[in-house]
Amino acid sequence: MTKRLSLPMYDINHTVTEALIGTLAQLLAVRGITAKVEWHSDLLPHWRDRDLLLSQTCGYPLVKLLPEVQLVGAFQSSAPGCEGLRYRSWLVVRDEDQALSLADFRGRRAVCNSDDSHSGYNSLRYVVAPLAQQGRFFAETHFSGSHRQSLAALRQGRADIAAIDCITWALLQRNFPRELAGLTMIGETPLCAALPLITAAQTDSDTLAQLRAALTQLTEDERYRELCAANLIGGFATPERAFYDEVLQWEQQAATLGVTAL
């Protein structure tokens, strides 16, 4: 049976993403694993699919919504702001607000990609929680659907601040710098666990081992160095699932300070 393969989370330059996932599919085929590359707009059902061979999700859905999936590993990123298997978000505002601190955004408008995003929602809630009053900090919080749409909302004056995944920012800076025009960073979130690569609960141990072998070859073989660099991938590692507990701890810490939502 053909299994499903996707890498949806950093599809900024689609040509580059296609080359990456196509190469991975070839490395799997050599190992006797047939994978169908798919592109989904509704990701949660895809991640829950019994035939999911490999995809990349966010740490927040992993700990909140995907208890049954298996953790394959995670990419190490070479993007500024990343360290080892951890990444962070930049706090992004319009240039006109570049002299302000996070505390100055009390009562203003935030924009997030979605409420199940660590980088755009959970991390922002975590850093504003100590500044909140009676569980609130922002006057409004809007949801855009993606980091790119959040940046558009900032540029167009429909929101005032957003937490943007540092890898997304770096890929946009490289491929579509106009989308960052007029925007600047006034701060950052702490480091947290990088986006996990997952497979279905039904994937057997031999296939899981082959997945990890293919991902290791992809990130270590000299033939694919340029391809990985174009995707800001610097390595692959296999942390334990408990590595992602810190994502949930951020939610819990904000809740202890009275902030359960933005």
Automatic annotation (TrEMBL):
<dbReference type="Pfam" id="PF12974">
    <property type="entry name" value="Phosphonate-bd"/>
</dbReference>
<protein>
    <submittedName>
        <fullName>Phosphate ABC transporter substrate-binding protein</fullName>
    </submittedName>
</protein>
